[in-house]
Specification:
The structure is a homodimer of 790-residue chains.
Chain A: H1 7-29, H2 56-73, E1 76-81, H3 87-96, H4 99-103, H5 111-120, H6 148-156, E2 162-169, H7 176-181, E3 195-202, H8 218-227, E4 230-236, H9 240-266, E5 279-285, E6 295-296, E7 299-300, H10 319-330, H11 334-337, H12 346-349, E8 393-394, H13 396-410, E9 417-421, E10 439-440, E11 452-453, E12 458-460, H14 464-476, E13 480-486, H15 494-508, E14 519-524, H16 542-546, E15 554-557, H17 562-573, E16 579-583, E17 589-590, H18 595-604, E18 606-608, E19 623-628, H19 630-646, E20 652-657, H20 675-682, E21 688-692, H21 697-703, E22 712-715, H22 726-732, H23 737-747, H24 754-776, H25 781-784
EC number (chains A, B): 4.1.2.-
Pfam families (chains A, B): XFP (PF03894), XFP_C (PF09363), XFP_N (PF09364)
Cofactor (chains A, B): thiamine diphosphate
Chain lengths: 790, 790
């Protein structure tokens, strides 16, 4: 418990902290002379001064004190550094505790290695300025702010013996995702999950402004944190020894409380009556750029926003800045901290935890090392029987729900699979999972509630950011998951997925990082079936968004029916290092392929559906009807049926695309087709009428290099929608069967004169549709009761 | 002050509320028989039952009581309905108070109009199920949750006489943007701004789950709301008369407090010592689906998530459901509420405020009616002199800052222009604005602070969602603004801008909606100059994102220098109904065009820079070097200079694109070029090497229909980056001058043998670059000191 630390321990902690501060500043400034063995000269200074000093001393302080409690309590700790732009700090500590050298043996823990550490920072060919995949011990890039706490909770889930410390900068605390993440404490099960210790670091300033939480009265901040369900512990000041002492005491208090909460919950008192614990939060107030230059060019710097990046900006040019830098660096007394060979002194090293306990060596931060293959159940148990195509209907996501339920059962002991979603699991028809597990919930309950459970592994909160952040933290620490989301609103996390793809793309290039489970999206309640909600809920553009990113990471699947969805799900659920986007409907959808056919089709990713066209092995097609997505596939097949009836002489090929990246050239994406493959499917010179689920120009963007591109005509969503009938949606966007037939007639040269009449018949059907729905409010019977096999 | 309401007033309020509830339920269910003049039959029921009942009675209650205080206090009130999916409620009230008929005269306030009101709801050809642009009195689509409070604050800014009520559903309260928006109270100036009254409606459930804020102890919720800076007032229950009474009292208390806060602040006590007010918030707890069916098919419905959408789902098929519906509708006693002609009774009408005070008639919700032309200052006062191209450097955003400062001065009295940004105004080098106005700030201050001011019109908070929400609310109520943002992180608001573009696109089609000021983005600190931050801060894909949306709304500009940025800014700042995306750098950039030249160039949006190529009026070009964006323009011009030196016989045309949508076909976008125009610039058959600011395939997506597309070769950002030198960034992405020359050599047929040697020279320069930066950490002198005019 929180006894005062003995003086020699305080002295050691302070020495370690000074060493970390010294190395942090050194990384921003020094090309050479790392130990200041001679007076600094302009040649020792980097020509471009890049980095963030302001947050670094605070991060170093937290690191110093986490190391102490790790030593004293033999804790397994992962730290999420929210202000990860303070890369110099986290790198300095990794070097001090030896985990950097363990990861990068050429950066030795001596003078030569120190020179390298400093020189490489933010230097061409070196390491980035932020905490990044290259940084040992990290699962959290510090670039875009807002996600630290969600990542921390994701890491803590199903890791009962782990403590996740999470430093939250007061800048980050202003973001929406962070503000929402505080409520994640209502989802953390003290029995099966680890603990999260938020450390709100109020250094008072952002880039150029004070921060909100630093400028409200302490009593108001306490109310806020208590309102979030936490019990705040305050530490603050600018006197290092005082702060060391207070922070040590606060950490001890916090960890004692966490231990008590867990002990009590795990002692079997797990009834409904158990109170939701009030987890501690530490509020740490220290000056921005603490221990750095106080005043520069007559302006206050330490303790202000001016310390955010590089406090002394003209060190090479201005002798006074150079003098200030040298005085600053020497103020840490490096000769006490490092021996003549540049190795940390024994005093400094006495603060470093043992091997795997070091924060820079946390196995959780290299979560692929902990990943176990996911036991995806045999698809045979869930597949729907398909005797002939297009004669039966199933809701694809409901079928998938059965498989996910079994997967939940099969991972009940392992607890390494989670389903997350913004209050939409049942709406998306995956509710079979509730037969196997509950929805995580630690808040109050009522007798009418269903499926809420303290240990549930479905995570539902009306916050896409939190869903995404949880799953990122969960998968980066080596576990598996699926994010089920309304298609339109996954754009809410566009920027988060950007960052995650960047992380995975970079991590793939680092041999020491083991592959981690993919981040899987099931996008459903999609653009074509927003009967209830209309225009605001229609956006198929997430596919476009992710396809701008690294082809090594991104995968996009549009299974056209239930069995293909199962096959795609099997593939993505146990994949590694990808972001898999699966778009599939929840509404009744024709079953086109048996399980075996679906397997074969998904293995190819794209293929001719010979039974749907007029393929007889002798004729080249006059036209290719291509389709991707469940609704477009239905319309394309209906168009094929109309063509067969009305223009039987026409040779029609039907091609279905499951894996959108197959359309890319082979040199642009690992799944891309060679031109010969593409041409064999789509031809080089015949018209291709392509019914696509999303924005039509995406298909052009993928296929513009193909020989047949000039003949490619794509229909898709063009931002026309409201609350209306399903068929009206496709008519409004010219994706309907009648329009597709008209497109074929318009594009195939040399058709018989009868074709013009057929075209008019189609146009008439569209007109009939318009008046019918306005009268009846439902789709034409010929559409509503259509089936391929009729 | 809060005296008890007399009984007859309570009775009237309750009658009004019952009428609104009746009309809400009727919209979800009824095709006909709106007044229940005969027993309900299946034929009276809509074939598709779509809509959200659960939240409607709560919204109706709030509307009823807002009307009362509007009457009693003659208030100017705008209401933001966060749970706008409760469209039936807002539509019902608009019909009751006559504002619906005022807007849509064919929906009369009588039986025929009531039938129409009910029938059109969520019916093909009718009105959407959510609050939408079609809804009178609204600035807030209820589709995507999270933005209600930010919109409310945006509407209240600079509207000192306005009260903005904002209903926040407890589902929405879980989102990140909403969670962050609570802190907007630290930016609202009680002197110059209006008031925001949040009404947190805890009906306890989302689609399928309880809500967090309804399931924490009341004391914890109070702490949370106080922590946000508010003073909570609680109202709750399921007994209508009790709730009417309590809500009336709470509203009176809240409005008295607001009046007192404003009175005190406006009495001239505006010194720094003034305390930040604690604005009231009302917490309203009523059952979800209140007054609807209690139990359906044996399951509890009222007061549970099952009431979210359509409580009775099989009314046409199931006689028991039909019976329950009729009993439910009759429980409101419609014969007391409407006369035989279907007009609301006098008792009901007694609750309706006078003409323009009606919520459905608020002029602020049709803000274009209030818009004044923005006095954009003359560009001549800010333009940089350009004697010859490429000989001087300016930071474009800093030049723009001068203009914005003057605009701030010129709108000081009008107060109808705001600049918003996530703590980046100074970082983006617009800080000249602080000479004219301050940063809005009502929280505590310190002596070291700069530019903070209670009445400042720069809004800085580290929350892109709040910036976007404020500006949406501000512009939709008729005022002007600019959002300055790091390019990469504007993706944080992808989904918000989706919704805003949808809103504007729909509103443009409504004759009664006056055009509102555009939402303008200045995206800077862009992909090519993330020297400090590296890979995480690199994403030029927002342009791709918005170009998926309505071409009537979206505009994209990439001014290549300071003067073109001024011209673009002049154009967008006083435009209407657009989302203008302007991408421009903050780093020193060559001045290419004088102000006059810039005006001419921007008017065309794309044009030949004859002085940069070899145009002599006689030769067709052998190759076109095209460019868009400041850094690509510099590289393209450097490539043109290299070609002139090394291959002087080559006819090179340089084309610069400012307005990206010019590349689209004329039939796809109002700014699109006809093929003849495009071909005249880019040729039909010569190679075009295009240096583009963002993802290269975007240019293909825009230009794929052009005759010359097969010859188009685009370079741009392909997700390669880190903290490195500016020139290394372009080299990594093959956008550098040397690579562009190599591309030209590779594509122009029939070049002299010397071309191969030139190509090798270029390749050697790239190799030299690689080793140089790793040694020196800065760019090659030949690049760092290059200028066009040297």
């Amino acid at each position: 418990m929180a006894k005062d630390l003995p003086k020699h321990r305080l002295a050691a902690l302070d020495a370690y902290w000074r060493a970390a501060n010294y190395l942090s500043a050194g990384q921003i400034y020094l090309l050479d002379n790392p130990l200041l063995t001679r007076p600094l000269t302009p040649e020792d200074i980097k020509p471009r001064l890049l980095g963030h000093w302001g947050t670094s001393p605070g991060l170093n302080l937290v690191h110093t004190h986490l190391d102490r409690v790790i030593q004293d309590r033999d804790l397994d700790v992962l730290c999420v550094w929210g202000p990860g732009h303070g890369g110099p700090a986290v790198l300095a500590n990794a070097w001090l505790d030896g985990s950097y050298t363990r990861t990068y043996p050429d950066v030795t823990r001596d003078a030569a290695g120190m020179r390298r550490l400093m020189r490489q920072f933010s230097f061409p060919g070196g390491v980035p300025s932020h905490v990044a995949p290259q940084t040992p011990g990290s699962i959290h890039e510090g670039g875009e702010l807002g996600y630290a706490l969600a990542h921390a909770y994701g890491a803590a889930l199903d890791n009962p013996d782990l403590l996740v410390a999470c430093v939250i900068g007061d800048g980050e605390a202003e973001t929406g995702p962070l503000a929402a993440s505080w409520h994640a404490d209502k989802f953390l099960d003290p029995v099966h999950d680890g603990a999260v210790l938020p450390i709100l670091h109020l250094n008072g300033y952002k880039i150029a402004n004070p921060t909100l939480l630093a400028r409200v009265p302490r009593s108001e901040l306490d109310e806020l944190l208590r309102g979030y369900g936490h019990e705040p512990l305050h530490v603050g000041g600018a006197d290092p020894l005082r702060v060391h002492h207070d922070l040590a005491r606060a950490l001890d208090t916090a960890l004692d409380r966490i231990a008590a909460i867990q002990r009590e919950a795990r002692a079997g008192r797990t009834g409904k009556a158990r109170e939701r614990p009030r987890w501690p939060v530490i509020v740490l107030r220290t000056p921005k750029g603490w221990t750095g230059p106080d005043v520069v060019d007559g302006e206050p710097v330490e303790g202000t926003w001016r310390a955010h990046q590089v406090p002394l900006a003209r060190v090479r040019e201005d002798p006074e800045h150079l003098r200030q830098l040298e005085a600053w660096l020497r103020s840490y007394r490096p000769d006490e901290l490092f021996d003549a060979a540049g190795r940390p002194s024994d005093l400094v090293l006495s603060c470093v935890p043992a091997g795997p306990r070091r924060l820079g060596a946390s196995v959780h931060a290299n979560g692929g090392l902990l990943t176990r293959a996911l036991p995806v159940p045999a698809l045979e148990d869930f597949a729907v029987p398909v005797d002939k195509p297009g004669s039966t209907l199933h809701e694809p996501t409901r079928v998938l729900g059965g498989l996910l339920a079994q997967l939940m059962r099969d991972t009940e002991q392992r607890r390494d699979f989670r389903l997350v979603g913004p209050d939409e699991t049942a709406s998306n028809r995956l509710q079979a999972v509730y037969e196997a597990t509950g929805k995580a919930w630690q808040a109050d309950t009522l007798p009418t509630d269903e499926h809420l459970a303290r240990d549930g592994r479905v995570m539902e909160v009306l916050c896409e950011h939190l869903c995404q952040g949880w799953l990122e933290g969960y998968t980066l620490t080596g576990r598996h998951g699926l994010f089920s989301c309304y298609e339109a609103f996954v754009h809410i996390v566009d920027s988060m997925v950007n960052q995650h793809i960047k992380w995975l793309g970079t991590a793939r290039g680092l041999p020491w990082r083991a592959p981690v489970p993919s981040l899987n999206y099931l996008l459903t309640s999609h653009v074509w079936r927003q009967d209830h909600n209309g225009f605001s809920h229609q956006d198929p553009g997430f596919v476009d968004h992710v396809l701008n990113k690294s082809p090594d990471v991104v995968r996009v699947y549009l299974p056209p029916d239930a069995n293909t969805l199962l096959c795609v799900a099997e593939h993505v659920l146990d994949s590694r290092d990808h972001v898999n986007v699966v778009v599939a409907g929840k509404q009744p959808c024709f079953d086109w392929l048996s399980l075996d056919e679906a397997r074969a089709h998904c293995a190819r990713g794209v293929g001719v559906w010979a039974w749907a066209g007029t393929e007889d092995g002798t004729r080249e097609p006059d036209v290719v009807l291509a389709c991707a997505g469940d609704v477009p596939t239905q319309e394309a097949l209906a168009a094929a049926a109309l063509l067969r009836r009305h223009l039987p002489e026409l040779a029609v090929r039907v091609v279905n695309v499951v894996d959108m990246t197959r359309l890319l050239p082979a040199e642009e994406h690992p799944h891309g087709m060679r031109d010969s493959e593409y041409d064999a499917l789509f031809t080089r010179d015949r018209p291709v009428v392509f019914a696509y689920h999303g924005y039509p120009w995406l298909v052009h963007r993928l296929a513009y290099r193909r020989a047949g591109h000039a003949h490619l005509h794509v229909r898709g969503y063009k931002e026309s929608g409201t609350t209306t009938t399903p068929f009206d949606m496709v008519v409004r966007n010219d994706l309907d069967r009648y329009r597709l037939v008209m497109d074929v007639v318009d594009r195939v040269p040399g058709l018989s004169v009868r074709a013009a009449a057929v075209r008019q018949t189609m146009a008439d059907a569209r007109t009939r549709h318009h008046s019918w729905i306005r009268e009846h409010g439902v789709d034409l019977p010929e559409v509503a009761h259509w089936s391929w096999s009729q």
